[in-house]
From TrEMBL:
Protein name as it appears in the record: Response regulator transcription factor
Entry keyword set: DNA-binding, Phosphoprotein, Transcription, Transcription regulation
Keyword Transcription regulation assigned: yes
GO terms assigned for molecular function: DNA binding
GO BP field: phosphorelay signal transduction system; regulation of DNA-templated transcription
Response regulatory domain span: 4-120
Cleaved signal peptide residues: none
Pfam families named among the record's database cross-references: GerE, Response_reg
Entry keyword Cytoplasm: no
Domain HTH luxR-type per the UniProt entry, residue ranges: 145-210
4-aspartylphosphate PTM sites in chain numbering: D55
Gene3D superfamilies membership: 3.40.50.2300
Domain of life of the native organism: Bacteria
Length: 214
């Protein structure tokens, strides 16, 4: 099954380049395009794609607001931000708006295509160049565990800690002596109980609640 993608960028040349790269890949396809944030919201509502590649700096409704509107209305559509700007405001604003990933435009095409697949599969992805500032930001404003973690079991707390440390499901399974499928189920239940969309936001929760330190 092909990953259905919508491209959002105010530069037509950028969209054309992305479309060309994606169209050469058998398991990915571009089903729509938008040049503004407002248009992106409308296109996503009509087409319900799997992934939206979202630029941030656009006239009118910017990429962060468009991301917020899309993720609040389309529960199955995931937003992957692709921008030339990796400053703190853009990174944190995008993730708070519900983006499942944040990448910069200078990344190699094969890595971008792989990122689309990861996000479509329910994982999240943050560019290495912004990971450290992300961790420092959320770890620096920790909250007490509180009600957010009261609903999870002791085992799920262990899994959340390991997710926060960057372990894959296979690595979590090995560490805890459980089957990989069981680790995957724990991760899925954590997303449901904590009300997050993907693994990136589980990592943020692990840092925010103090389960994991930088």
């Amino acid at each position: 099954m092909r990953v259905r993608t919508v491209l959002v960028d105010d530069q037509e040349l950028v969209r054309a380049g992305l479309k060309l790269a994606i169209s050469r890949t058998p398991d990915l396809e571009v089903v729509g395009e938008a040049g503004t944030g407002a248009e992106a919201v409308r296109v996503v509502r009509e087409l319900a794609p799997d992934v939206v590649l979202m630029d941030l700096r656009m006239p009118g409704v910017d990429g962060i607001e468009a991301t917020r509107l899309i993720t609040s209305q389309a529960t199955d559509t995931r937003v992957l931000v692709l921008t030339t700007f990796d400053d703190d405001e853009n990174v944190f604003g995008s993730l708070r708006a519900g983006a499942s990933g944040f990448l910069v435009k200078d990344m190699p095409v094969p890595e971008l295509l792989g990122a689309i697949r990861l996000v479509a599969a329910g994982d999240g992805l943050i560019a290495p160049s912004v990971t450290r500032q992300l961790i420092e930001e959320f770890a620096g404003r920790r909250r007490r565990h509180g009600p957010r973690l009261d609903a999870i079991t002791e085992r799920e707390c262990e899994v959340l800690t390991l997710v926060g440390r960057g372990l894959s499901n296979q690595e979590i399974a090995t560490r805890l002596g459980i089957a990989p499928g069981t680790a995957k189920i724990h991760v899925a239940r954590l997303m449901t109980k904590l009300g997050v969309r993907d693994r990136v936001h589980l990592v943020i929760t692990a840092y925010e609640t103090g389960l994991v330190s930088p």
